[in-house]
Amino acid sequence: MAAWSRIGRGGAQLSQSLSRAAASEGGATPGASSAFRNASGGLLSRGGTHYHYNHVSPLHGLALAGLADRCAGRVVLPPPPSSRGISTTAPRLQSRAAASAAAAVEPSDGEEAGGVPSLEPTGPHEKPRLVVLGTGWAACRLLKDVDTRAYDVVCVSPRNHMVFTPLLASTCVGTLEFRSVVEPVSRIQSVLGSGPGSYFYLANCSGIDTRKHEVYCTTVSSEGLPINPYHFKIAYDKLVIASGAEPLTFNIKGVKENAIFLREVSHAQEIRRKLLTNLMLSENPGLSVSEKKRLLHCVVVGGGPTGVEFSGELSDFIVRDVRERYSHVKDDVKVTLIEANEILSSFDVSLRQYATNHLSKYGVNLVRGVVKNVTPTEITLSDDTRVPYGLLVWSTGVGPSEFIKSLDLPKSPGGRIGVDEWLRVPSAPDVYALGDCAGFLESTGKPVLPALAQVAEREGRYLARLLGKVAKQNGGKAHCAGKAELGEPFVYKHIGSMASVGRYKALVDLRENKART
């Protein structure tokens, strides 16, 4: 019981001080160490936002997983009034640059009379419109820092909040609650909910016409709307693509259908619910020993920081807490971490060895292998070894999303949108890209930066300053930034990496000569 009380108190204390921990002033608490792994700080703490949460034990948090699905970590903004600048125009789309989007926005029978809803181009006496696609680290840093006196801001995303991803692993086992790791985008940039020319749209971008300076969108849900699906378009003066990336599956059969990724709050909720369900089911009478062991076998694929941190959290939860409450099956609960090479390969050798020893000491079985096939109950490795599982978490890195692949824009090595030293997209005037969906073109002579939160955050901060400079030179409107002085190009300096490994232990790699461009 002491362990449960300790975790409940620690989770609540960490929740209450999350914004202070993100600012990294005075050092990190042990429970917050993983938050600084990829974060340069300041994003959630600035603006004076503080958090207050109830004390919830991990077991109670697990028991309330169904309720959490409906209310925890989901901040629903009221829909924007229809009178805030939305007009209806006849659909005239360019088929060459946005053929797929044009097909999607073609009016249906119900739309013929009124045309396609749109946000019209800004007038000569109006502020230029900055359209931002996404609400991840890069997009939210840009939204927070952009000069709203110079630009009207429109944000389009299927998610109305930012997720503090380094702490997601802690929410899976109840150390933190889901609401502790999200921040509504309207708090990050208040004009999105109050500015006369600024809006947030809960929608997916389906296409971009760079010649017409338009983006084409489809709402996440059309329930209650007059047309299903509901399409609209937005005219922009400046466009920032920061829509992030998707988990890599390497086209392995069965991964998408059976594995759970750890990228969103919904993923953490699903992991929590699955873990509790398997613990309950394993105590049913009549189950064979092998089936009971399968249900209680948690497998993590991918030995990067996310996989290691989740394995450490899960091991702590099992060793210190679950075994006290589920003593009948305490010897059958296992955690296996599968990695093709070495865990934490970007860290120093001595730190990798420490992590390996620490995880092994506290019950995590480390397996070196390559996954060949996944079924609902077992994994097959390249050497034909079969690994039965009850819970499978997949964390093998990220790659370009289908939306990014569909865009007719220059690409960097690896399939990301190609950008120059100022994060501009060549051949697409007034278009910028940053975060996990963007990378330097080969012609720049710079390597593609890693998909880390601190990279994205730094790019968002840089681009906000650059757009401010452009606006001061009267270059905010479309096609007006050609002769603007942009200043110094973007330079990224790696300030270090951190990863927690459980039992209030963490690794810190502060080598000065790492990943500098």
Can you walk through the features of this model?
With 517 residues, the chain is of the alpha/beta class. 29% of the residues lie in helices and 21% in strands. It is built from 16 helices and 25 strands. The strands form seven sheets. The protein has a nine-stranded mixed β-sheet. It has a five-stranded parallel β-sheet with strand order 12-19-13-14-15. It is elongated and about 75 Å long. Mean pLDDT is 83; it is low at 1-98 and 106-113.
Mean pLDDT: 83
How many helical elements?
Answer: 16
Helix content: 25-40%
Let me know the largest β-sheet. Answer: 9 strands, mixed
Output the strand order for the largest sheet.
Answer: 1-2-9-8-7-4-3-10-22
Radius of gyration: 24 Å
Unreliable stretches, pLDDT < 50, 5 or more residues? 1-98, 106-113
What is the CA–CA distance across the termini?
A: 50 Å
Hey, roughly how much beta strand do the residues contain?
Answer: 15-25%
Q: Would you report the number of β strands?
A: 25
- Shape field: elongated
Main structural class: alpha/beta
Question: Which short descriptors sum up this protein?
Answer:
single chain; 517 residues; alpha/beta; 5-stranded parallel sheet; 16 helices; elongated; disordered N terminus; NDH-2
